[in-house]
UniProtKB/TrEMBL annotation:
Residues 18-285 form the NADP-dependent oxidoreductase domain. The keyword Coiled coil does not apply. Substrate binds at H108. It comes from the Eukaryota. It comes from Coprinopsis cinerea (strain Okayama-7 / 130 / ATCC MYA-4618 / FGSC 9003). It holds the Pfam family Aldo_ket_red. Keywords: Oxidoreductase. The active site is at Y52. This is Glycerol dehydrogenase. PROSITE patterns: ALDOKETO_REDUCTASE_1, ALDOKETO_REDUCTASE_2. The record marks K77 as: Lowers pKa of active site Tyr. Coiled coil: none annotated. Transmembrane segments: none annotated. The lineage of its organism: Eukaryota, Fungi, Dikarya, Basidiomycota, Agaricomycotina.
Length: 312
């Protein structure tokens, strides 16, 4: 069964390889999406974040599913304005989700924002740029993550949107190596070098926006469509199977019950059907001129990604 596909982390735990994304899933629709995913479609992994503004409703959906907490994998993320107060962020998340621990807690972005700025999530300076706390060290954020894991409030800890350069700011003083680095990964942004680096460090690369996010051109890409037709799959399934074949867990988002059900089964089917030649073709798309990121927030810092330079 698709829900049984799991990927082992460096702390010995196993993350269900296919989870449900919840970014841009609106209150009013996300409760039903989450309940459907768990109860009807067999998902056991829900990807959440404080900044999505829907943790309360995601929690309602989890509760409505009736599936016991210990059978679920719930991921949360500490937002940028909380780097100096990670436990406070976690406590807010736990309360809204209605649980007393997370399976995985991630640093959402390696960008500490001013906690006392002019907005709780996206503080800005008078020039309109985001109000970054340049004095804060990411290694001090990571220390707080380690303490929460020791206290048992989160089982696994990791990061998100960390380039090799940003990882170098936390790894030398880390007692715990991050279990996961959640990144934008799909055939237009495969980040082959970073994924290989993570593997060498025992960090699992996890894919966000695996379908290319809302309105994705990847679903119409001629290579993706041809491979899908060859195997009798939908393009979305090919994109998910492509990542799973590399040991990369995926968190496709949908609020459409039929797609939620189809994605988990289709991803597992594609994982079985895709051939090495298909993977090799998809691997080359970015290098053939299609390199593209879909998620590029205007951070006024250099994140250290080779393909993405922000104006600092
Ligand atoms: P996805 O790549 O998952 O794409 C979601 C879009 O695809 C939605 O518009 C959805 O529509 C549509 N869709 C879903 N299934 C299908 C299908 N079978 N056929 C056609 N269209 C489909 O985008 P996201 O950007 O949401 O990424 C997934 C998750 O990753 C997020 O929800 C979030 O949990 C996480 N994430 C993490 C980030 C981070 O910084 N760590 C950044 C971005 C995302 P509909 O809902 O209408 O069905």
């Amino acid at each position: 069964m698709a829900a049984d596909l799991k990927i082992k982390l460096n702390d010995g735990r196993e993350i269900p390889a296919i989870g449900l994304g919840t970014w841009q899933s609106q209150p009013g629709e996300v409760e039903n999406a989450v309940a459907h995913a768990i109860k009807e479609a067999g998902y056991r992994h829900i990807d959440c974040a404080w900044v999505y503004g829907n943790e309360k409703e995601v929690g309602d959906g989890i509760k409505a599913s009736g599936v016991p907490r210990d059978q679920l994998w719930i991921t949360g993320k500490v937002w940028c304005t909380y780097h100096t107060r990670v436990e406070e962020s976690l406590n807010e998340t736990l309360e809204k989700l209605g649980t007393d621990y997370l399976d995985l807690f991630l640093i959402h972005w390696p960008v500490p924002l001013n906690p006392k700025g002019n907005h709780p999530a996206f503080p800005t300076l008078p020039d309109g740029k985001r109000d970054v706390d340049h004095s804060w060290k990411l290694s001090d954020t990571w220390k707080q993550m380690e303490a929460l894991q020791k206290a048992g409030k989160v089982k696994s800890i990791g990061v998100s949107n960390f380039s090799e350069a940003k990882l170098a700011e936390i790894l030398p003083s880390a007692e715990v190596i991050p279990a996961v680095n959640q990144l934008e990964l799909h055939p237009y942004n495969p980040q082959h070098e970073l994924v290989a680096f993570l593997k060498s460090k025992g960090i699992v690369a996890q894919a966000y926006s695996p379908l290319g996010s809302a309105g994705s051109p990847l679903l119409q890409d001629e290579t993706v469509v041809r491979i899908a037709e060859k195997h009798g799959l939908q393009p979305a399934f090919v994109l998910l199977g492509y990542l799973l074949s590399k040991g990369i867990p995926v968190v496709p988002k949908s609020v459409t019950p039929a797609r939620i059900s189809a994605n988990i089964e289709g991803a597992a089917a594609a994982f079985k059907k895709l051939e090495q030649a298909d993977i090799a073709e998809l691997d080359k798309l970015a290098a053939e001129g299609k390199q593209r990121r879909f998620i590029t927030p205007p951070w006024p810092v250099d994140l250290g990604f080779k393909d993405w330079k922000n104006p600092v």
